[in-house]
Amino acid sequence: MEVLITADQVRARVDEMAAEIMRAYDGKPVTVVGILTGCLIFTADLIRRIDLPLRVAFITASSYRGTTTVSGLLEIRDDLLPDIAGRHILLLDDILDTGKTLARVVAHLIDRGAASVKVGVLLRKLGRQEVPFEPDFVGFPIPDKFVIGYGLDFNDEYRHLPFIGVLQPGE
């Protein structure tokens, strides 16, 4: 398997992103909302490095099923989301691909009454974006390849890898 981003590179960039986030929020309380399941490892590592008053919540927003690598109908579930009215939200996701999911989830959080929504993504896949969307915090720009590891999966496997790898056909 090709290692695109090593575990050490991920760790260092997550540290840098935490510092960027703390500067952006300047001591304000933040509700971190992670998009499950891909964001789990990224969110856990990042929030331990953020020195701000934090609440943590999760939602699901998925358009991939099983072994498909092509997105389908987006389904958002926010059963685990506390009241966010008037709160500053830091939405975290593993990857910005087409931009459709993040744009829809941001609109959903604003509809629920969030005071503000900033977005952090571990990866930004270049050349795939279909809707105009600019995240506030980006870990790494990556080429248009199917990646796994550090929370990203293929058919619910490979999430546990400490690095970002490129899945080759047949692996």
UniProtKB/TrEMBL annotation:
Keyword Glycosyltransferase: yes
Gene behind the chain: hpt
Residue ranges crossing the lipid bilayer per the database entry: none
Family note: Belongs to the purine/pyrimidine phosphoribosyltransferase family.
Swiss-Prot/TrEMBL keywords: Cytoplasm, Glycosyltransferase, Magnesium, Metal-binding, Nucleotide-binding, Purine salvage, Transferase
Pathway annotation from the record: Purine metabolism; IMP biosynthesis via salvage pathway; IMP from hypoxanthine: step 1/1
Catalytic activity annotation: GMP + diphosphate = guanine + 5-phospho-alpha-D-ribose 1-diphosphate; IMP + diphosphate = hypoxanthine + 5-phospho-alpha-D-ribose 1-diphosphate
GO annotation terms (biological process): GMP salvage; guanine salvage; hypoxanthine metabolic process; IMP salvage; purine ribonucleoside salvage
EC identifiers of the protein: 2.4.2.8
Class of this enzyme: transferase
InterPro entries xrefs: HGPRT, Hxn_phspho_trans, PRTase-like, PRTase_dom
NCBIfam families (alphabetical): HGPRTase (TIGR01203)
Domain Phosphoribosyltransferase as annotated: residue spans: 10-154
Named cofactor requirement(s): Mg(2+)
Name this polypeptide is given: Hypoxanthine phosphoribosyltransferase
GO MF terms, alphabetically ordered: guanine phosphoribosyltransferase activity; hypoxanthine phosphoribosyltransferase activity; magnesium ion binding; nucleotide binding
